[in-house]
Amino acid sequence: MPSPASTENIIEALSIDCVIFGFKDGRLDILLVKHAEGISAGKWALPGGWITYGESVDDAAKRLLKSLTGISDIYLEQLKAFGEPNRFPEKRVVTLAFYALVNEESYSLIPGFTASDAQWFNVHDVPDLIYDHNQILDFGYKHLKHKVRHEPVGFNLLPAKFSLLQLQELYEAILETKLDKSNFRRKLGKMKLLINCKEKQKDVSHRAAALYKFDKRIYVTLRKSGMVFEL
Amino acid sequence: MPSPASTENIIEALSIDCVIFGFKDGRLDILLVKHAEGISAGKWALPGGWITYGESVDDAAKRLLKSLTGISDIYLEQLKAFGEPNRFPEKRVVTLAFYALVNEESYSLIPGFTASDAQWFNVHDVPDLIYDHNQILDFGYKHLKHKVRHEPVGFNLLPAKFSLLQLQELYEAILETKLDKSNFRRKLGKMKLLINCKEKQKDVSHRAAALYKFDKRIYVTLRKSGMVFEL
DNA sequence: GCAAAAGTGTTGGTTGTACACCCATGG
DNA sequence: CCATGGGTGTACAACCAACACTTTTGC
Fold this sequence. Notes:
The structure is a homodimer. Chain A is of the alpha+beta class. Chain A folds into two domains: 10-150, Nucleoside Triphosphate Pyrophosphohydrolase; 164-224, Arc Repressor Mutant, subunit A (Orthogonal Bundle), CATH 1.10.10. Chain A has helices at 57-69, 133-150, 164-175, 181-191, 216-224; strands at residues 10-24, 27-35, 44-45, 48-52, 75-82, 94-103, 115-122, 194-200, 210-214. In chain A, strands 1, 2, 3, 4, 5, 6 and 7 form a seven-stranded mixed sheet that branches. Chain A has a two-stranded antiparallel sheet with strand order 8-9. The relative contact order of chain A is 0.16. Chain A binds a DNA duplex through residues 163-165, 180-183, 185-187, 190, 204-210.
């Protein structure tokens, strides 16, 4: 993030940085912004900024994301605080890293105020970032890999209605493995978390797949009665 | 935590609070301190304090824990930041919650500077705490319940050498269930994470159990080759 | 009819669950 | 000799991995 432009109303010692994952065409992506001003102008960074005195930390993260990229209403969660004494060059700043999952195609990126550009990068092909942002990104990716196997967060990376192949490719991209189609389907079928939309794909040059949606409410119910999401 | 006694060298807007779990006689406990000074004097709270400019966030947590309770060299990990605007009465303070697992019997509690008392409480029988500390505690307990099933962190709550029944009772206490002895043992046997110490319990009024220890190095090795700890 | 993806079935080995049982020791 | 916990065995059901196979559709 840039140094606080005017020191109006922000907490000096705290910043926020967001690791935002997107998914498109079988590739897992990460959203970066290019800074327009400050000492890090021209360099790529995680989208982030400062917290004001009137808002909660989580509200600040939502606000920043929206103002930097135009993205709102998404899965957003705290990751951890990065607080090495010298991680920020000008002064002591602890940053709260968030991570988010979005469906890449549902948003067109609108670079905000202090960002001259906002762009998706393949998660395996990321440039050098400012400060400790590469480290934060690595941490976020490891976290995602772990989390995706134990909680149904992956659905946030897909459109509301998706085919089973899309879902499988998502998991293959995140976990960096190949999965067996038949077994993958059976496993999901057993969980009862997917609702058949009774619709078919359109404009595909092969047999159209059934579309499904994930119902969070069903998951919450099943979870209360002891169900655990695994792979 | 108390208000910063002298404003020498600390980050004003950030504090640390620790959720510290202990285990003894089949009961899961939580460590609380009673404040000696400040507006919250006489009330129970999570052990915590302030971060200085020269130390990392994680180092600060270690230092605070040691100075408040005498406990050092333990499993300590970030939980999350609690940052509602009005959570702290005097001014805007975001707190970084940590959680820790210790073997209760390995430490005698030494209340430090600003703590007039430090004491273990049954996790199901905790008094009203200052600020949002009850909320932080609840979050920590939920986190522990989840984590313990997917990573071998539970061992940090036991002495270095323990019997299989102790281990089982630990899991029963955390997860609030009963487990089948034979199946529990088989599962652990298969994981190869336990080393038989070739020692037996002493001074018990029944057949002495074999003692085991958990070898973290073996776990790290197995994990690299794809092993996943589950239940 | 061929390519590409949808979608189903089979089979054998591995795990998990629920029990039942015997063993060692101190009081 | 009994209470307490240590420790083992078994049998059935559920599950998983690997692989083969049939179906639908657009070009």
